[in-house]
What we know:
The chain is mainly beta. It has one domain (4-19, 33-81, 94-102, 109-675). It contains 9 helices and 37 strands. The longest helix has 16 residues, at 91-106. Mean pLDDT is 83; it is low at 1-47, 58-66 and 99-126.
Amino acid sequence: MKRRKFAPAAVFLAGLLLVAVTAASVSAATRSSATAARTAPGPGQTVTFKTFNNQCGAALNVKGSSSCLKKKGTSGFASQGAKPLPKLPAKAAIKTALAKQNRALKVSTRSQPPKRGTRASTSSFGLKAAVVSPVAPSLPVVTHFGGTAVNGLNAYNQATVGGYEIAPSDNAICEGNGFVVQGVQNLIGIWDSGTLSPHGPVIAAQGLESFFAPAFGGTSLDTLGNPKCYYDPDTQKWFFTIEATDSATTAQSAVLIAVSSSSTPVGSWNIYTLDTSFSGTTCNPACFPDRPKLGANKNAIFISTDSFDYGSTAFNGAQMYILDKGALALGLGSPSTQYIDLGASFGAELCPVGSPLCPGPPPQYLNDCGLAVGNVFCFYSVEPAQTPNSMYSTDRGGTEFALSALDWFSSLDDRIALWAFTNTSTINQVFPSINVQYVFYTGQSYGFPPNAAQKLGPIPFGNTFIGPPGPPEGPIGTQDDRMQPVAFTHTSRHGHVMGAVNSIVNGRAGIAYWILRPAWSAAVPSQMITPHALVGSAANPGYISNASEDVAFPAVALGPEALAATIGYTLTGPGYFPSAAISHVRADTNFWKAPNITIAKLGQGANDDYTEYGLSPTGPLWGFYSGGVADLSNRFFSIGMIQSPNCSDVEFFFDPSCGGTRGLFTNWGTALVKTSD
């Protein structure tokens, strides 16, 4: 989703530095060659198998480049000092800037397809029987937390170090070799993993525009968002990705990739540009790579995007880029890259025999990717798993797993898709041969979440620019029920994949989660069959919910032996300001059921953000995801919360930072949380 930016000078930044493209463009006019074999699905599942064997550049680039991935130079982490926020501007100037920017960005604001608010029943299409809205026990909220929780990056750091404000924050976190790296929309921060103290003076943060500066030279990219990061214990390198778009001409897009040159994140980094300008069926004038997702296995780095057309409402579906991890770690110029248009290559919905939507012989699959209207049946948000403990799946030539939700109508569903990318060890060859398949798992129900409530409190921005008196603070936006970040670990006998979504539960904003054990056919060992669910089945559902409060934006951290896991998320509601909370789940305790909602760091004020008061076409924004990671001993999270109490309207007038605790337009914060069983 495109973000609105606000300069700390109280004038909205219309754009950053304009620059022109050198990264190779990728055209969807030519597709990767693929061989396909569909197998008749069993009850409640769909299996599709395809092989892809063309390089990204060779398959897609009309400009003749050999690769869509290019090394652009080197950068280095340099902790930057904060700059003071300006004095409060006139109310009229703020409202004019907001109205102008929202009009400009309204058309390009992206959301999960199908569009938010669609409540059609899938049963009316004859495709899916009615699903019951989730009901679960109300978990108690407890305050005894035995781990460590500190303030992470916040809106004040963003405005004074990053140079401008963005809502929401979006939390990325990775950990290894004694460091924790945190990312938010325009900042990267580095912390000591033992104490969670900043690595550097005051706040160890650097603006991402300066961090990724080599990628901007000679391009028109000017807007960053949706950071992700990963520490790879095999290569002992750090990987940091972020979406980059062109807000002026909408003619270019990319995913920027930084790879550390050594095992420390405070040294130099190699900067790459992955051109996504034409990654989709419809790209006019270019494609928008919404919310890049980052995963990894032993052989490769996996980057998945949701491709939208800049110039229309067309949604192109999920796109997957598979990059040679070893070549990236060595800093090579153009590492091997496999591009797979998942949306165009795979039918998203099995059509029932006799349905008027599919009059031909079975099996037939619906695929609406690339349509300007009605793009319902199109795979979206395929979330590749991270494996932070080197416990990869090396079976079948190397395997990467991913999960995606299947709520086509933003209503209710009880299916998710488990994806497998096999033979990934060939990624370092001239023509990689990657096998892709998915299987539907039918288990517990989940559905489009309502927005979350928040406790009433002072709202100086709302009172100053909307009032006086200002309206009550708005809700916490929960966005949708797409799959959130996924974790994988392989024990001596089995692999385990864990994922979670925002969901309606007991009529409030809640969380649904799954731990699946992938399974393979005895007759055809290369083919997946319906996985076994440790939790997330109809018989053993996994929900986090409270009768009076709301929870949202789960991040999962799966222990190395798949004996325990932790889920981190935001707790908010009538009784709580937005707070960081966790739930431990264990195999030997109540069959992976969450016993309670544990507050790791208590929120100190209401979310007083410009999106709360009807000033943004998106409605209330809180964040699109949290971050979580596990090492062999501990689990770490980056979770959205409000760090400091809001000051009074009078104090805000004289000091819009409220004593260095917030930005002018927004006051989001994050918590860094460290915990163990």
